[in-house]
Each structure stands twice: as structure tokens, then as C-alpha cells.
Amino acid sequence: MNTWLAKTQRRKEYNAILRLWRLCVFARNSLFFNNLPARMISQNTIQQILGRLDILDVVGSFVKLKKRGSNYLGLCPFHNEKTPSFTVSPSKELYKCFGCGKAGNTISFIMEHEKYSYVDALKWLAGRYGIEIEETFQNDEQRQQMQVAESLYIVNAFAQQFFSKALFETEEGQDIGLSYLKERGFREEIIKKFQIGYSPEQRDAFTKEALAKQYTAEILIKSGLVANRNDQLMDNYRGRIIFPVHNHSGKVLGFGARILKSNDKAPKYINTPENEIYIKSKILYGSYQARQAIDKADECLLVEGYTDVVSLHQAGIENVVASGGTSLTPDQLRLVKKYTNNLTIIYDGDAAGIKAALRGLDLALEEGLNVKLVLIPDKEDPDSYVNKVGVSAFRDFVQANKKDFILFQLEVALKDAGNDSVKKSEVVNKMAETISKINKVEDFTKQQDYIKQCSEILRIEEGGLHALVNKFIRDRIATQERKDSFNDAKQIEENAKQAEETNYDDATFNLLFKDELQEREVARILLEYGIKKYDDDKLVGNYILEEMVDESLIDNKDVIRLIAAFKELLQNSPATATRSYFIHHPDTKLSALAVSLLNFPYEESDHWKKEYSQSDGYQKKLFEQPYEDFIKTLARDNGDHLMSFLKMGEDKTNMEVESAVNYLKLRKIKRMLLENQLDMEKQHTADEYNMLHQTHEHLKQMEMELTKKMGAVIIR
């Protein structure tokens, strides 16, 4: 009983952590999506895009591919490799890298390579194939929001071109703006790469140009490009260097404008005010230019300013973005995590730089990021330091001076506390709270290492710090559980209790409650063969769904959703229930599941088929042919036809289908046996007990027949 209680307690704790994680994900997604105007690409447009997709055409525009058998091979664009392991299957419309494991379809390739959202990937593909996009909106308010957002993108693009032209093609721009940038060491190619520009000194140079092009005063003011002072419209960024801020697909969201003249009254930088598209807490400067470099390096370097990013890019260090000098926000950290789990912060080494580096980094731990700090010496910043020592020395310095965030935070806190015992106590509490935020299951070992190291530095008992960390974890879980509750803990607890009470071994318990691989096999067969004929009367999909005695036997929620989607298609439009439909499904979870189920681990070459596969033998139908046809098949010049009779090429669809269906039936019988056995342990009359015993015998007989049919061994 004590063992069961211990297991139950562990399951409770695990489930509580799981519930906390789900709450965080739900809250995060809700906050993110609620900030966006709801719009959808019409189904008509999506169908046109899917109808035109050619995975070789799309992937081939980024990767040099060579034909290898029925597939194509190339160097993976997602990690550095010298031997090609990136495979594209035109027939399955899938790609897979056997080096890094990344796999997907045409749309997910664009999403992964370009770091686009699903909608942006569709738009990219529509543009490639010349398809006009139709968008649908739920109501007029959402339509208006989207129209404002599109107007802001358009006016920002116009402004960026105006500022670039002013920098390179006007005398003022060349004498003031361009000369300043060149004095800072920026070459023209890097200026053009980041689309840096210049706003003239004239009070309304941009305003006049924009109004002449029919841009409305309302949009110009909302964009922050123009200000209304005393009923007079005037340029907001006069006499400043302009740094455009891009989104992940390269569109201009807003601008940062740096003053050039000394002026104590004017701020050094003016940034775009927040509007429908520019939300500062969700933006990292340079992320568009750095996205692929971060992905390949598996590390993001974070600096403070725009010029830090531009200088490092010019030096060849491209996996770098800037926070704009503000505290890191959850959305910015998630943007980093989209590319990598490794974040290295490079800030000035003075007190202000240290303070800025430490702001908001507890949030990074909650996101599961591995955070390191590098402090630039001698009152330098990354821009000046890389120009001073050169790129090679800068790289070496960063590599040699990475400090662990938590240990550095502890070092700084202890220095501030000095010999004050009260402040030292506060340091212990602060460190325990920080370590408690490393709350992902896979980071458990990391958390334990920090507890050990921090307790040694603080000279306190490791067990005491461990208890304090656990207290913070429990308090946070309790707070979340009070806000919202989930019901699945009870079911997990009950499953554990049942397994303990019945003494079922792991194999039986897995069959009853969590046989993941078999559930995925049912889904795979539906995708592969669902609309294939099972017999003269029905499709494979219809047969499986009819024989599926109890849908509650499936525990994997994604598999359940796939089966439900397949069922709906069979009822309404059977011809569309193809694997291609699910590979390109708009629900990215279903699409990812379909891709993972249909992956191609290997494929036999023609040489292997000819030289080695005859040992498996030939199908019966080869020998059932008329004598003349049989002799023709064996002729030397008819080898390809003979190979079509190999046993390895025999259609085994129905065997696979029946195996999957029988598995579900066996699982149902096992659960019924368990329920009946538990019922038999209760008080009953003689007649009731006799009935339960007969039921048990009947179920065991069914189990034996089914396992004999499957060629399986009965689990006792």
C-alpha cells in the first residue's frame, strides 16, 4: 500500500506540473492570438495553392538536389553537414533529414526555413505560383483592423524607400547621413542590407511626398512618421538616421530614428509608437536578417542597440538581434526560442549594462532557455569592441567569457549584500525563487546542479536550499490550481491504483492504458489505405471505423482528432480523404502527425530488388497463370514483369488492416477483463458470482481466439 501511495503522490506531482505547463501554454497562446486581427485565407485559395504545390520546385529553390532512386538527395539546410542526408520524396510530398531529424511537407519546409507562420507560408507560395489571395473575416470590425494593418505596412514600405533615397541620392543625405555612417565604419552593402536611411532636416519633406502619393493624414500619424503640432503636419524624424524594423517575413513594422546633432532636449532615439503592427514587446531588431544564421548556429546573441547588430553582421557574426535596451519580455523570449534554446547576452560591462542584462531573465528560465552572459570590458559596447579588436578576437572573447546567468546573478547579489545578514537571507530566497523557475521536466538535472552549486557558494545546507526551491514550486502550482482546475489527475491516479491492485505487468498495463505505437499504427493505416478498397462493398477506412468497437480505447488526443477528421471526410467527401490532404492540413498538429506517420526510413534500390529479394520467394499468382503466360514471364527480356510477382511486392494491405483492428479488439477485451475482475472481488450472491465467472471465461476464450489469430502470446 505504501508503494502505491508513493507512486500516486509522484503522479500527482507530475500531473500538477503538467497542468501548470498547459495553463502557461494556453495563456501564452491566448494572449498572442488575441492581439491579432482574425483573418483566414479562403478555402478556395488554399485549394489552388495545394493544387499547384511541387515539393521539388520549392525545396529545390533552396537546396541543390540530386536524383537517388525514386527520391532526391541534398545537403540539409537546417544544419551543417558535408555528406548529404536530406531526402525529398516527390511521390509522398515529404522531406526528411536523417542527420538532424527534421521532416515535413512543402508548406512546413517554408515555415521552417523562412521562419514563417502558416498563413505567411501560404502567402509566399501563392506569390510564387501567381495565385491571388482571398481573405475572409468574421466581422466588419476585424476587416477594418486588417485594413488598417495593411495600410500601415504599405506606408512603412513607402517611407523606407523615401529614407533610403534621401540617404544615397540627395546631397544632404550624403554629406550628413552617409558620412556619419561611414565614419562609424559601416560599408554601403551593410547599409543597404538593413535598409538604413536618412530623414531630411526640412520640417515636412516626407509629409509633402506622402500626401502627394494619397496617403491619409490619419495613417501617417498612426504610423508615427508624421506628427500633428498646432494643426500642422510635420515630419517626426527630421535630421535623423533611420533604422527600419522588420517582421519575420521582411515587412517593415516601424522605425528607430537616431539623432545626429547634439541636442540636450531631444531624445537620442525616437521609436514608432505602438499601433496595430508595431508592438515593441514582441519585436527583436535584426531577427529577419538573423533568423537562418541563428538556426544554423543553434545560438542567439542578444545585444542592446541597432548599431551593435549592424556592426556584428558586417563582421560576419550574423546570429545576433537587439532588444532595444528594454527588459526582455515573454514574447521576445519566445521569438528567440522559435529559433534556438541557447541565448547569449552581450552587454556593456558597466553597472548599467549589468543591470540591463539581468532584467527579466527569470522569464528566460521559465521558457527553458540556456542563458549565458558576456560583459564587454573597458567601457566598450559590442559595436565599438568588434571594430577595435577584430572579428576573430571578438569571437574568442565571447567564447572564453560566457558566464552562467544564475551563478553570475548570485555573484552580483552577494557583492551587493556584503556582510549584511538580512540582505544575504534575501539573496538565498531570491536564488531559490530563480532556480524554481527551471520547471520543465527535461531540465530536472540542470535544476539539481544549480541547487548544489549555489548551496556551496552560499555556504548553506544543500537540503535546505532544495526544500526552499520546492516550496516556491508548490506555491506557484497552488496559485495556478486555484485559478483553474483540470480533471485528468483523478483518472491518472485511478489508472495507477488499478495497475497496482491487479498486479498487471508493464506490457498489459501499456496495452490497457498507453500503447502509443499501436495507436499511431491505426492512424497510419487510415492515411495510407483509408480510401483503398477493402473488399467489393467497402473502403478500408469504413471497415476500420465500423470495427472500432470503442473510440475511448485511443488515448492519444492527436490520433483521436485525426480519426474524427477522417471520419467526417468519409461521410461528406470520401475522395478527398487522401494522405496529401492530411500532410497539408491547415491544423499544423494534424499535419505534423501525418508527416511523422508517413516518413520514409528507407527504400529498396532496383539493384537490391534484382539481386537479393528473390530469396523471399514469389507470389502464388505467378504460378496460377496459364502456361504460355508463365513461360513469357520467365523470359530474359521480361525481368521487370517477373519482379512484379515478388513476395516483397505483394499487397498486404488487408493483413495490416486486420492486425490494427484486432489490436483494438484485444485492448477492449483486456479492459473488460480488468473491470470484470475488479467486480468479482466485491461481495456478490452465488448467482451473481456465477454470472461474473462465466463472463470471465467467455472473455478469456475470446482473448485466446484473437491472440491465436494474431499469432500473439497471451499476457497473463
List keywords for this structure.
716 residues, alpha+beta, DNA Primase, Chain A, DNA primase DNAg catalytic core, N-terminal domain, Dna Topoisomerase Vi A Subunit, Chain: A, domain 2, 5 domains, 5-stranded antiparallel sheet, 5-stranded mixed sheet, 34 helices, 18 strands, globular, disordered C terminus
Number of domains: 5
Number of extended strands: 18
Question: Largest beta sheet: what is the strand line-up?
Answer: 2-3-4-5-6
Helix content: 55-70%
Largest sheet: 5 strands, antiparallel
Low-confidence stretches: 1-8, 10-38, 484-492, 501-514, 712-716
CATH fold naming of the largest domain: Dna Topoisomerase Vi A Subunit, Chain: A, domain 2
Shape, principal axes of CA atoms: globular
Mean pLDDT: 78
Q: Which band does the percent of strand residues land in? A: 5-15%
* Count of helical stretches: 34
CATH architecture of the largest domain: 3-Layer(aba) Sandwich
CATH class value of the largest domain: Alpha Beta
**What would you report as the Rg, rounded to the nearest angstrom?**
32 Å
Class by alpha and beta content: alpha+beta
Note the gap between the termini.
22 Å
